Fold:
Amino acid sequence: MNDLIVLNKPYGVICQFSEHEKHPTLKTLVDVPHFYPAGRLDTDSEGLLLLTNNGGLQAQIANPKFKVKKTYWAQVEGVPSEAALPHLRRGVDLCAFVTRPHKARLLAEADYAPLWARH
Structure:
């Protein structure tokens, strides 16, 4: 049986099921065997995370070779300027690799008003 769990991952939870010495894990929220995250959010991020017990689906969503288009809303410290957005659009150097170019735009306050307060 192939199932999908949609989880609102809280701030401070690491995106893994195995025990971690410093952070609570997904297992503290969803104690269901054989499920894996399809993608990840940093420990200090919060938001939608898909969990599945279908390895093929997990790979198709998470592996860059499948080029699955994803849309992210990111709330960041401060207010980015329009001048900062070209850096995101070109790709971001994360030391280990450079991200692919992205579409990036600022949202109007009305677009994100329904979101919860950030930690």
Summary: The first helix runs from residue 55 to 62. The mean pLDDT is 87.
